[in-house]
Each structure stands twice: as structure tokens, then as C-alpha cells.
Amino acid sequence: MSSAFERVVKSVGLELDPGRELVPMHSLQSSASFQPYRLLSRKASSRFFRRYTHVNLSIRDILEPDAPEPAVEHVGPFHFQDAVDGHLGGSVEVAAPGQGKIAGGAAVSGSSSASMNVCKLQVPPNSWVAMLRERRLRQPEHKVLRELRSRGHDVFVVTEVLQTQKEVEVTRTHKHEGSGQFSLPGGMCLQGEGKGHLSRKKTVTIPSGSVLAFRVAQLVFTGPEWDVLFVPEKKRRTFTPPQTDGVGEDQRVSTEDFRGLQAEAKAWAGLLESMSKTLCEQLLRGLGQLLRDEPALHGLEESLEQGLCCGRAEPVPGPAGPVLECLVLPCRTPVEELAGPVAYLLGALAALSGAQRLLLAEALEASALPEPLELVEEVLEQSSPWQERRALSLPPGLLGDSWGPEVPAWTLLEACGLELQVDAPQVGWEPAAQGCTCALYASLALLSKLSQLC
């Protein structure tokens, strides 16, 4: 089940961003870091799923002369109220003449409510024109930019946000009810009846000023000059990449559709085949813990990325430590054949929500990864090349015995931004869901490969 914050973001986006042009926030914890003029980085390990990471810098920190950023425009406020109430119930009765009767019923209900004021903050276009004319890149280059350059990351700047104006309380309730009765005739008549219920209520507070969604522009650096691309180009890089004789990203993946994604994931997964069974089991056990620990997951990704870039991966504490030790030599140099695919997997996992990673952890423990992998594969293959909205029919054989909001595969897909239907099993494909759905596929593919090797 997606978090209360993610549901609010989705509901607001449907009303205020129907074209899905803004990037939705997945985490309330980091939402305050995505304000206008703040810088974000994005690594280019995969062209199919790329996530933005805040770097604790604003555009002012990398330009000279030093001066405050121009004021942003306020649009709104927009008052938004969202209330959802649902109920699903059923009953069954089995009776045979002279043999008695058994009957039972069950019901599931849920509701959520939120009322908030949302405003839009955006940088006026003429502010960018003025800054491009009056300011240059600071020399020497900021140390954070030097590090991002060495890692091959691209840099973006936040140009627009949707944010809350006041503190918001989101309340969600979930209730299960069940009952049953039986009657057995005979010399001694037996009858019985039972009832039960389980209810759960959760309230989440979203602070004032929390960003729900944002828009970015790509920064391009050439010497002391800089430029802003308001429509980021897929092949344009922030830093001019060094000339190499190896296979570049454009040669490694030839098509930007499901076949390209499948080939990319298969290539990374194939590198894991050289791993011993003992090492594979240790790695998979550690990854299972990291799926439930977001800070540790990001810490491992950071250390591994640093090691692949600079040749030395520093030790990390907690559950990420044993995983890292599976991937480095005693001199702390990463074993590229192992560290590369694991770094790719970590990037895919980091692009998912916390609720999705928790479901993957549970599927991993239950050895139940093949089923959601086949389902996600079917969705991506039917919807490819992903640019148009469409309704996809799901083969009954992929759905198992049940299909609905309580099924993990349903939640995994719904959290990607897809609309699902129960009656005639369908998925409503949304182009904006491409990144998250591709990341989900890559995560399932590599975790499944590791499970097979153990």
C-alpha cells in the first residue's frame, strides 16, 4: 500500500498537473530540499530510470558575482480537498439437504481524507535571462561540481514547485470484518456463530512548505560559461564527457523501448554469473535487509559509486557494511564485474518508493519474485514504446488466484503511477510512469537472477 504522502501527491497532481509535467515527490523526509534554485544531480547509469538527488547547493553557490537569487513568483493558493471512502463485501452459504449448513461473510472498508492549500512557486523566465547575462561559473569550480563531473552525473536546477501553505493532517482508516455460522443436524444439533473485526487508523502530518512536485531544467557547463535547458535533452550532458575507446552508453543500449531495457538488465545480470554460491547468498541476505533500511541503502550506493569512480570504496557502517565487503578487494578496490551490476540494482531500487521496496523484501523472503516480474514484463512489453496512454489487458494466467488492492503486485504497479481495474483485469498505462516501472522491472530482474544463482 502506498504511503499517505504519496497518495496526497498523486491526488494533487491529477488536479493541478493533469499533463504529468512535474516530477512527483516520493519522500516527505526530503521534500523541503527541492525548493526553487536548488541544485539536483542525476546519474546516467541507465537511460530508462533516472532519479534526482539533492546536493545541498543552490544556483547561487556555483556562480559569481555572489548575489541573492531573484525573487520567485507565487501562483495560487489552490484549495484542495480529497476524501475517499470505499467498501467491499461478500458472503457465501453452502447447504445440503439433511447435512447442515455453513455460511460466512467478509468485508473490507477504507477511507482517507485531506484538506489543504497548495501554491505554485516558479522562477520567471526573465530571471534566467538576467542571470545568464550577468553571472559566470565560479572559478575555481565548486568542489561538489568537480565530484559530480568525475562521477559522470548531470546537474539540474529546480525551476518550479507545488508546495503546501499550511500544515496538513492526512487521516487514513482501514477496517476488516468477518463472520461465520454453521448448523449440523442429527441426534445432537450443533450450531455456532462467530464475528470479528480489525480496524486501523493512521494520521500523517505534512508540514507547511513541503514540496509535493517539482520541475527542473538541465544545466550545461562549457568552461566558465553556463546555460539552462528548459527542455532537457536525453543525450545532452552537463559536463563534456571525456573521449574514450570503450563502449559508450549509446552503443550499449540501442533502443529506448522494452527490448532495450530487457537487454540492459540482462547484460548487467549476466555479470553476476561469475559469483560463487556462498558469496551470492551473503549478498542476497544483505540486500534483503537494505530493502527495509533506506538510509543504509543510499549509504551503500554512495560508497560503491565513489569506489567505481575513484578506485577506492570506503567502509560503511550498519547492514550495508557486509554487502560492500562482498564487492571489494582487501585494498578497498571494487571488483567491477560484481560492483557494476550491484550499483545498477541499487540505482533501480533507489528510484522506487519505500512501500515498493518493502514489498520486494517480502517477495524475496517468500521466493515469490517470478510472478511480479512476469506481470511487470507484460505491462512494459504491451505498452512499449511508452509514449501514449493506453489500456492494457492482463492475461488471467499471470494474476494467480486473486487480483485487487490487497495483492502485492497490484500495489507495486499502482505505486508506479498506473491505474488498475479489478473487474476486467486491466492496467491504464501512463507515459509518466515509465521511469518507475522500468526501475521496478530492473530491480525484479536482478534480484531474481541473484535468487536463481543461490
TrEMBL record:
GO terms for cellular component: NLRP3 inflammasome complex; plasma membrane. Residues 4-240 form the Gasdermin pore forming domain. It is a multi-pass membrane protein. GO terms for molecular function: phosphatidylinositol-4,5-bisphosphate binding; phosphatidylinositol-4-phosphate binding; phosphatidylserine binding. It is found in: Cell membrane; Cytoplasm. Keywords: Cell membrane, Cytoplasm, Lipoprotein, Membrane, Necrosis, Palmitate, Transmembrane, Transmembrane beta strand. It holds the Pfam family Gasdermin. GO terms for biological process: defense response to bacterium; programmed cell death; pyroptotic inflammatory response. Residues 257-427 form the Gasdermin PUB domain. The keyword Lipoprotein applies. Belongs to the gasdermin family. This is Gasdermin D. The lineage of its organism: Eukaryota, Metazoa, Chordata, Craniata, Vertebrata.
